Amino acid sequence: MNSHEVDYEIIGDDMQVVEVELDPGEVVVAEAGSMNYMEDGITWEARMGDGSEANETIMGKLLGVGKRVLTGESIFMTHFTNSGNGKKRVAFAAPYPGKIIPVDLRAHGGRLYCQKDAFLCAALGTKISIAFNRRLGTGFFGGEGFILQKLLGDGMAFVHAGGTVVKKELSGQVIRVDTGCLVGFTEGIDYDIERAGGLKSMIFGGEGLFLATLRGQGTVWLQSLPFSRLADRIIASAPRSGGKQTGQGSVLGGLGDMFGDR
């Protein structure tokens, strides 16, 4: 593979932006709607496919579109090109609080598996596909882990994680995590879904019925705040029918509702 060699800078802390610097003619490919700002001289075009195969046939493009439909993403990807003179910058941001993880695919065997909504952008030449987990248990109980995005290439790719990012280097160890807390992992990591303890723990433990089990040789990235968990908290605190909000933090919230000061 011959991915474009792009430079970058990550700006911010909890609501990060990645600025990608392009030489004339260089291209970065991103998910639709992720662009934050760009300098004069950057041109963009929505295309079907990631552009990793210059002579890809129509059937190949349609197959790629079908795979993206399975991940719930747009069938189009946006290609940003430096069509001017000198270096130009284009920036991308994720839609909710978290961290942007830069991954040099060449340093990780040219392959990265990540949750289907984690990919943000990558240098042109990166092939963005999907991978099915062959284990039946993972398919039924792994949530989003059944369909993973697969990034192939030898350049820079950028993925987004919610909250704080924890990077684990495994050398034969086993780690068990909430299925939503897994961001991505490299080749050499075996991913499976296992039951979370005994029956009592599964029902009353509050950690879900199943956990993701990762073992092997490679790198794993975890997130402290999956978007699904954030969305659940927002929905729980949303106004009820009739315009009243639920109590927050203590019974005093409910008393406030009773006296009409909420």
Attribute tags:
single chain; about 260 residues; Double-stranded beta-helix; six-stranded antiparallel β-sheet; 5 helices; 17 strands; about 45% strand; globular
Explain what the structure shows:
It is a single chain. This protein is of the alpha+beta class and 262 residues long. It has one domain: Double-stranded beta-helix, CATH 3.60.160. The protein is 17% helix and 44% strand. It has 5 helices and 17 strands. The protein has helices at 58-71, 136-141, 199-204, 227-236, 251-258; strands at 7-11, 17-22, 27-31, 35-38, 42-48, 76-82, 88-93, 98-104, 111-115, 119-123, 127-132, 147-152, 156-162, 165-177, 182-186, 189-195, 210-223. Strands 9, 11, 12, 14, 15, 16 and 17 form a 7-stranded antiparallel sheet that branches. A hairpin with a 5-residue loop joins strand 1 and strand 2 (17-22). The radius of gyration is 21 Å and the shape is globular. The chain starts with 6 loop residues before the first strand and ends with a helix. The model is unreliable at 136-145, 248-252 and 258-262 (pLDDT under 50).
Low-confidence stretches: 136-145, 248-252, 258-262
Distance between the termini: 59 Å
Helices, by number, come to 5
The major sheet is characterized as: 7 strands, antiparallel
Rg on CA atoms, Å: 21 Å
Derived from helix and strand composition plus strand pairing, the structural class reads alpha+beta
- Per CATH, the class reads Alpha Beta
Question: Can you tell me the number of structural domains?
Answer: 1
CATH topology: Double-stranded beta-helix
Strand content: 35-45%
What's the architecture in CATH terms? 4-Layer Sandwich
What is the overall silhouette?
Answer: globular
Per DSSP E runs of 2 or more residues, the count of β-strands stands at 17
CATH 4th-level superfamily: Mitochondrial biogenesis AIM24
Return the string of H and E elements: EEEEEHEEEEEEHEEEEEHEHH
Average pLDDT works out at 80
The proportion of residues forming helix, as a percent range, comes to 10-25%
